[in-house]
């Protein structure tokens, strides 16, 4: 009986140790299109949910990269409930010959951080 309890404890410890630090979701907030034209402005909603209580990395340290679109601005991070944050990012489609727009959000910490990207078709 004692050995089963120890095995259960070890198993649960491994699960907790391998859990990701946060979940990142990206989605088009403005009207979704099949493809976007040069000059179109797109609003992307970013959601970050911490899966542990105290993250050593501040929410403002979430890094974004943009490809095929120009960054126009973003709202401040808003904590919608404990450990759950949202913000909106505004992009403008660039004329650069690329076939898609890509926005990537990344968090790096000792607990695996988090990563998400969204790709949208672009009409040239």
What are the defining features of this structure?
single chain, 124 residues, mainly beta, 5-stranded antiparallel sheet, 3-stranded antiparallel sheet, 1 helix, 14% helix, elongated
One letter per element, helices H and strands E, the order comes to HEEEEEEEE
Poorly predicted ranges = 4-18
- List the total number of helices: 1
| Coarse structural class | mainly beta
Largest pleated sheet: 5 strands, antiparallel
Using DSSP, what is the number of strands? 8
Q: Separation of termini?
A: 67 Å
Content of β-strand: over 45%
The portion of residues assigned to helices is: 10-25%
Query: Quick one: overall form?
Result: elongated
Q: What radius of gyration results from the CA coordinates?
A: 19 Å
**Mean pLDDT score, rounded?**
84
